[in-house]
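> call design_seq(struct)
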């Protein structure tokens, strides 16, 4: 996504949550949603980001909602990319069917007791990308999924967009949030891709993000 977004005239910043990626060595059972919100607030402060578009993918919608609540004056638009859109007091586990929550907790129990293994890679992912992804994926602290989001300012007034990935699983986890975006008149878009279009359809995603950024 970096060279594609750069060629479209954008600077793409991709921070890492505590306990994941190059910050894996910091993983511990106490990491929760609030830690990840503060991670992003730290990046915004230290990179001196202003008038930017905040993109939250999947679980990242939980984090993006919290960040938008804390520094609304700095954000031009929030884009939810096949993501959860919580309201005040909701945790990610509140937004999943009971069977999904049970699978998550069973996965953590079978792993190390406090980290949830990654979801299966979508079947439309190219073999080379599967190999690349597998080398970098890691489990995530379950407390990040169980922590309720606490909003200080209520429903955000920042303009929002939603990108719904049409190649869904049987659960179609993100359809309710896509429907909400449509009902509430957000800048709603769809992409013919599975859950991680930044991997499987980066060109199409770049075009969508550029179009969203260009719209007032």
């Amino acid at each position: 996504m970096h060279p594609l977004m750069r060629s479209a005239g954008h600077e793409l910043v991709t921070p890492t949550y505590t306990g994941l990626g190059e910050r894996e060595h910091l993983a511990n059972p106490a990491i929760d949603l609030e830690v990840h919100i503060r991670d992003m607030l730290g990046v915004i402060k230290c990179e001196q980001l202003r008038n930017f578009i905040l993109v939250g993918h999947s679980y990242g919608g939980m984090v993006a909602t919290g960040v938008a609540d804390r520094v609304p004056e700095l954000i031009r638009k929030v884009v939810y990319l096949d993501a959860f859109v919580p309201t005040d007091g909701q945790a990610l586990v509140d937004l999943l069917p009971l069977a999904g929550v049970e699978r998550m907790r069973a996965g953590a129990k079978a792993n190390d007791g406090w980290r949830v293994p990654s979801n299966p890679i979508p079947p439309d992912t190219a073999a080379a990308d599967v190999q690349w992804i597998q080398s970098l994926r890691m489990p995530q602290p379950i407390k990040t999924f169980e922590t309720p989001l606490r909003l200080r300012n209520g429903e955000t007034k920042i303009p929002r967009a939603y990108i719904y990935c049409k190649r869904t699983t049987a659960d179609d986890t993100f359809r309710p949030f896509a429907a909400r975006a449509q009902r509430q008149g957000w800048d709603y878009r769809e992409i013919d891709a599975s859950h991680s279009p930044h991997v499987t359809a980066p060109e199409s995603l770049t075009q969508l993000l550029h179009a969203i950024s260009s719209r007032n």
